[in-house]
Amino acid sequence: MRWRFPLLAVALAFGLAAVAHQAEAAGKKYKIFLSMSYIGNDWQAEAANMVKAMAASKDYRDRVSLEVQVAGPNAQRQIQQINAMVQEGAQAIVIFPISPTALNQVVRNACARHVAIFAYDAEITEPCAYNVHIDQPEAGRVTAEWLAKAIGGKGNIVVITGVPGTSVDTQRTAAAKAVFAKYPGIHIISEGVGMWSQAVARTELTKILTTHPWSDIDGLWMQVGCYTAASMEKEAGIPDNKLKPCAGEGSNGHRIQMLPVGAAGVQGTHDTYRPMGEPSISYASPPYSGALALKLAVEVLDGKTVPKFTKLPLPVVTSTTVKLCTQGTWQEMEQGCNVFQPAIISNPGWFASIYSPNTPEVGLQAALNGKPEQ
Amino acid sequence: MSTLVLPARRRTTRLPDFRRHRGLIVAIAVFVVLFLAVDVITPGAFSYFEIHFMSAGGATLALAAMGQTIVILTGGFDLSTGAVISLVNVVLASAMGTSPLSQVAFFVVALAVGALVGAFNGIFVAFVRMQSIVVTLSTMFIVQGVTLLVMEKPGGTIAPGFVAFFSGDAIPNLLPAPIVVLVAAALVWRLIRNSRLGVGLYAVGSDEEAAHAAGIRTGWVKFWAYVLAGLFYGAAGAFISAQTGSGDPLLGRPMLLEVFAAVVLGGTLLGGGRGGCIGSIVGAYTLMILVNILLVLNVSAYYSSVAEGVILLLAVLAASLNRHSPIAFYLRLARDKLAARAHGALASARPSAATAPVLSAPTATGQSSTPISWFARHREALRTILPAYVGFVIVLVVSQAVFGGTLDNPGYFDSLLVLSSFLAILALGQGAAILTGGLDLSVPWMIGFIGILTSGLIHGSDIIALWAIPLGLAFGAVLGAINGLGIVLLGLPPIVMTLAMNGILQGAALIYCNGTPAGFASSAQRWFMTGHFLGPTPVVWFLVLFVLAALLLLDRTVFGRRIYAVGNSPLVARLSAVGVGGTLIGVYALSGFCSALVGILLSGFSGQASLGMGDDYLLPSIAVVVVGGTLITGGRGHYLGMLGGVLLLTALSTLLAGTTLPDATRDIIFGLVVLSAVIALRERSA
Predict the structure, then answer these.
(1) Taking the domain B16-298, which CATH number applies?
(2) Is A347 within 8 Å of B516 when comparing Cβ atoms?
(3) By the CB < 8 Å criterion, does A301 face chain B?
(4) Do B286 and B265 form a contact (C-beta atoms < 8 A)?
(5) What is the pLDDT of residue B228?
(6) B366-400 pLDDT, tens per residue?
(7) What's chain B's Rg over C-alpha atoms?
């Protein structure tokens, strides 16, 4: 009995060795790996879909063999995983880094073996790595400045942060607070930990509202959660034209709520997932960053020079610039639409900032299903 | 955490030495096979570089698992592992200089930090005699807070000499330093094991009272166990600092569950008395090599958590399958039963008069004697239940003092109860599992999977919700029952079975929704969680009914009594004709049902289901159960106490959320309140 398992494993191993050899004969594609961190949240899944779509697109499917692996939330495992990828003969590794610093040693090792390392969305501080992300302090500053203006430079605001202890959260929050500090009339009356999740934002806001009712609050600054906040205001019976200004995330639900009440042609609305003219600013850490990183990685392998830091333009949409995509085609997005039909995107927490002029290969179908644009 | 001690296991065997080390031997065999598998599949031979890197990859986990093993050997549980590693990491990264003296000094500091936290745990566990899980949970929060105070975001550097010493080469191109570190750690463990203390560790874990009777100072043994564990965590923190060359306040936190998995894979018995640190080293490397295996097999991302869960199950099964294992026992039982039926020799087939014990009629004097007072009868229960409620009242008073307008505000209590409803429901399932001496770690993705599944089906339709919700609940119960079946039939430790189930469900959720959950809750679901019915939110009325049902279930039904019986002693329960297996399966089905219910309610609360929506409920679901006075080793506890724990922790986090205190301070306050609530009231009632 005791030997059955080991025997099975050995048999399995030999079988796989044969498979591995077949793959080697597949031709001269660039061998690129994607090391994701935690797959269990909406942003990660969407970003991964876009990377996969990029690899499957017309220009890349014959040039790139992409293998996707998940490291989970543990940096130790990502270290091990990146090393295993180097051992497997990776030419480039696209990484969503769990930690900006913990991977430095393994990344340095990979660089020494001429593997191109690309980090998307978050950063890797090791100088040999390529980074593709937005300017985090800018995200905090721009949204905070908008909110300060929206409430006329004075009033009580509630702050919902991201995951404490991460660089991204610390930078955004610090930049926003620096802005608020310039207005003596603005008071942060409470601060919740939102973990970049609509579900957590709701529990945190529910707690905060027990001690600070809506009547005490003039504005909200949230890394993720404006959609939830507007929904909760509706539950509390606040009419559409009295919604609090909210500076927050680039979720589709939030942007739909920013559309003016009665906006034409919006299909599939329900409950609070509808246009309500919420005064808002929506910023995003765009989920196409991984796809762009893959593209840049191929450029590096082609021998082109790519800057070590690709700063993504911060997608910012305000109540005046929000525009509905009726079909969600690439052409429409190119013409500046920035929110999708609820009839197509039934999950309001889905991240709508998928457009970049640099990634025409990936559009709505890429983000939803991992299918490239035709 | 033994759930089921079968009499067959107690048989003496002819190979005592092999039997004793069986867990270790199988662990090593599994590792060697996996290692060879990777070697065979990977193109080219293993170079020194690869050996070096692999040895460094698992070293932190191995050191941490060694520390955890020592605590587990004494029958304890240490949840502070990951937090201590992070703390050591940020202390080193923020303060270490580049001079050789500073580097040596900071290695000592690393060990000292670990030992100090360990001593803190040890004092409360060994001398204040509190449950290890409550103490270390509080410590975990406090240490996490302190870590964020030391360093609020990743940064800092570790001196290159320190990096090279621990993660470089001991002898270039021959011996990697991590191997030297592990050999040194293993030697330390050998010394400990062969000392009086080592004997004490095993003795205390096997039977604390017997150890005490044999003259072992059990208190000190436990104290030193936590200190030693802390030293190992300190070493792990030092090693990970060298390995990463910098600091990150979140580095250690996700390691906790993997540490437990490594310990169990290494053949150490949860609950104490059997196993050892060497096995845990092997377990740690087995877990790390899984990463390579998944990569080489090119397991699709959505399936990787499934594959990991299955491999964990298989590895533990490989260590436990033999003719004495539960499955063999049940097969024999079934065969005997069939044979008995064929011969008409079943006990139930024997015609016999119902035996009714003859009781003497109550005498008149008996009735007139003063009845035992209600307090006297319930003193034990009150002592364990009350602390949570007194803590709850104190938090309410503080909330009133800080914010005003809370105690007289029905809205405050309404929100509090809505937020409490999730944990109150989870507490029944998790509580029942803990009462039988188990744990249900599949809570997070049971919530997530059922939430995503039901809202995907419902898609806003109240009509579909009518059948989708019962279906989701039934699904939860069935998946929970599968947990129970694995635990009973395959004899898997509940931690392993439910951890694997959690991974499998995560994969199932991802595959079902293809990465993006699409559905949303129906309007009735949303009304239930956010609307109003006769004043309060509808779910508050539901919560009242749920609590009454839970109390009836645990206190007044046969099933409830059996849960306690199994928790007190599976063997005695079996001899008392309690169907231990059936009870356990029922308990895990109940827990699955409760998680599924929470998944459905949470989707109503948020309007939609999201991936990872259950992640924040695992530790709290355990915390409320133990804060409410339940014994983690099973057999003692009351649902009212758990409910008190839910109210206390929810009110406390509500209080903290209303402030602008930094997150670090909140963690520390949270930990201190949990700890002091349980201690202060312990003494008052003692």
Answers:
(1) 1.10.3470
(2) yes
(3) no
(4) yes
(5) 97
(6) 455 567 787 887 877 787 888 889 889 999 999 99
(7) 26
pLDDT at A17 exceeding the cut of 60: no
DSSP letter for each residue of B126-179:
IIS---HHHHHHHHHHHHHHHHHHH-SSSB----HHHHHHHHSEEETTTEEHHH
Torsion of CA B230, B234, B237, B242, to 10 degrees: -160
- CB-count burial class (<10 Å; 0-12, 13-18, 19+) for B149: middle
Q: Where are the domains of chain B?
A: 16-298, 384-402+412-685
Contacts of B244 in chain A (CB under 8 A): 75, 79, 99, 101-105
B447 residue type, one letter: I
Rounded mean pLDDT, A192-221: 92
* Token pair for A142: 């721009």
Those residues whose C-beta lies under 8 Å from the C-beta of residue B238, and which sit 6 or more positions away, are B88, B92, B106, B107, B110, B111, B166
CB B651 within 8 A of CB B418: no
- The yes-or-no verdict on residue A25 having pLDDT over 50 is no
Residue whose entry in the numeric block shows the structure tokens 């044969």: A18
Listed residue (B664, B671, B625) closest to B644, CA to CA:
B625
Window B:434-453, CB contacts with A under 8 Å: 448
CA gap B584, B6 in Å, rounded = 14
What is d(CA B336, CA B326) in angstroms, rounded to the nearest whole number? Answer: 15
| A278 CB burial (10 A radius; 0-12, 13-18, 19+) | buried
Residue B68 CA, distance from chain mean position = 13
Rounded (10°) angle between helices B494-513 and B462-489: 150
- Show the low-confidence residues of chain B (pLDDT under 50): 1-15, 366, 683-686
Mean predicted lDDT score pLDDT of chain A: 90
Reading the block at residue A66, the tokens are 């992409």
- How many Cβ contacts (< 8 angstroms) between chains A and B? 288
User: Mutate which of B327, B606, B652 to disrupt the A interface (most A C-beta within 10 Å)?
Assistant: B606
**pLDDT tens-digit map of B424-448:** 999 999 999 999 988 999 999 999 9
B173 touches chain A (CB under 8 A): no
* Helix boundaries (H) for chain A: 4-24, 42-56, 75-87, 104-112, 136-150, 167-181, 198-211, 226-235, 252-258, 289-301, 330-334, 364-369
A202–B605 CB contact, under 8 Å: yes
B13 burial type by CB count under 10 A (0-12 exposed, 13-18 middle, 19+ buried): exposed
Supply B149's token pair. Answer: 């105070």
Nearest CA in chain B to A344: B518
